[in-house]
Request: fold
Amino acid sequence: MSTVRVELPQHLRQLAGISGHEVALEIDAPVTLAAILGALESRYPALRGTVRDHYTQQRRAFLRFFACEEDISLQPLDALLPAEVCDGKEPLLIIAGIAGG
Amino acid sequence: MSSIRLLIGTKKGAFVLTSDGKRKDWKIAGPHFAGWELYHLKGSPADPNRIYASQSSGWFGQQIQRSNDGGTTWTPVDNKFAYEGTPGTHQWYDGTAHPWEFKRVWHLEPSLTDPDTCFAGVEDAAMFKTTDGGKSWHELPGLRTNATGPDWQPGAGGMCLHTILLDREHPERIVIAISAAGAFRSDDSGATWKPINKGLYSKMMPNPTAEVGHCVHHIAMNPATPNTLFMQKHWDVMRSDNAGDHWTRVSGNLPTDFGFVIDVHTHQPETVYVVPIKSDSEHFPLDGKLQVFRSKSGGNEWEPLTRGLPQKDCYVNVLRDAMSVDTLDDCGLYFGTTGGQVYASPDGGESWSAITHDLPAVLSVEAQTLP
Reply:
């Protein structure tokens, strides 16, 4: 079991009623994007459909995933994440595309 | 004494405005869901404290929020809107076939009798319904799978189902409108639908009188006369006296008959309101003068209502769901603008004042008259 840190965009923190920038999730190995997103949606049901599509389970177009200063958005959802993310030293960043308005 | 609650959807959140029956002094609460687009909020006629809200974002998709306390607190409910079966295709802007894709909920219409039942009009155009207070939504597929569906096409704002009218006298009747497909009616609670566009003329279409393809912007109805419908089309103001079976143009002496909103006086079914907009390429009032036009004769003869509205340098728009009426004895009217103003008239449109000048762009206005 690993404690993984996930940083979320403000809109999603507001939607889920999360205070602070991060949430900590307990994840069974192997730690993958799919496992983290599953745990996130299980703990915060309001986030279902907001990070990945309800039906295709694919990342929404204007969101990206970063870990250890690397863009991992295009990695398969079942790829293993860096050790620093798995052991909670670095957060998984879910970043919304920058736009004005 | 009765009071008024206005539910305001904007580009950056929802606001709840309240006043007593005098409608002079207003309190503004919000923003709720700050930073999100709120296309529409509407309260249940059966329980005014039950309110449904459509919250969406290009980044994070669709949410539906529900309040049980008049908009003070909210709870997210189900946000899955899945087309039933194979979605099929409609026309894209260039005339090619394009698959149906869910984008957002434009309009929520709670049941007249059951607070847990609500209809949702969505883009790409389809009807959904919940009977459990939003815990789950299911499609009424008879609309989308109508034989004319492959000929529907999006307007500039998308292929949206934006108008839903329910009828106490005919509980199984539902009238809806889609841009740019036209108006449709079901007489069996949404199981089957037929286009009701006879009499419409849209010169931008290859066949201006085609059965579907018309860009209907909004339809309004006085509940006391449900067979009489008033329509603001892309161009043209229309009326029907047989629940949409046939339409007649009633633009009359309007200075321009392009516009988005249309509404009907609560107690005078032949008194109709529109806000003329210059043209389809210039979405602002004519000559920089914000004017509501009223017809007391069910159309054709219109008079401008300007007292209290800006009469120079005004270049805002009033979007299709951004006008509403209350049900007090002296009917109140309300509308919001893309400039963030919300205007109120406590006297049927004779005089207007701004409740607020400074909200984000207003997408929708719904008035609730509370006991």
Q: What stands out?
A: Chain A has one domain: 2-96. The CA atoms of residues 74 and 85 of chain A lie 17 Å apart.
